[in-house]
Amino acid sequence: MTTLHCTLLRGAERRLLEHFYKQHGSRMRPANDGESWVARSDGIVAGLCLSDVADGRWLTGLFVAPQARCQGVAAYLVEAALAGTCGSTWLFCQPELTLYYQRLGFSITEQLPQALASRLQRYQRSKRLLAMVRPQSPRSSSPGNSTSV
After folding, report:
1. Is the C or the N end of the chain the one with fewer CB within 10 Å?
2. Segment 114-117 long-range contacts (CB within 8 Å, at least 24 positions apart)
């Protein structure tokens, strides 16, 4: 994989992310009310969703195809999707992924918007999950639309 393009899917294109998840046997589904982002290199290799919540965004569904893992694809996609956003970004993750998300600028938090706090409480009935947050960076640069990975 040499060139990576990160794009926001619009309209009917949003179904491509659902197809990507299914193609890889993932139980993830794109958020109906959010943005669907993908990273492409000879086809979709990663995807995520961002939904508006309180004064920020909720990141869900981050998934990288097995053949594209350990190449910086997820980090690049997260940076592209969050470039230009305002407010904090929250996510829920399994405890074993904490260090990974910390490298992407997230930290463990107990301070959540009410909508996410109640959702996390429901999810924790059947899963071990942590809440993490990433305050919006003051950096004005973004990773752009393509890079070498």
Report:
1. N
2. 114/54, 115/53, 115/54, 116/53, 116/54, 116/58, 116/90
3-148 under CATH 3.40.630.30, yes or no: yes
pTM score, whole prediction:
0.86
Q: Which residues pair with 99 in a beta bridge?
A: none
**Where does the chain show beta strands of DSSP type E?**
3-9, 35-40, 44-53, 56-64, 88-93, 107-108, 130-134, 146-148
Burial (0-12, 13-18, 19+ Cβ within 10 Å), 2? exposed
Contact 102, 133 (CB under 8 A): no
Distance CA 123, CA 49 (A): 18
Give the whole-angstrom CA distance, residue 130 versus residue 132: 6
Contacts of 109 (CB under 8 A, 6+ apart): 90, 131, 132, 133
Place of tokens 């950096």: 139
Q: Mean of the per-residue pLDDT values for the chain?
A: 89
Q: How far apart are CA 40 and CA 2, in angstroms?
A: 11
pLDDT at 93 over 50: yes
In this structure, the number of other CB atoms found within 10 A of the CB of residue 105 comes to 17
Q: Provide mean pLDDT across the span 20-29.
A: 92
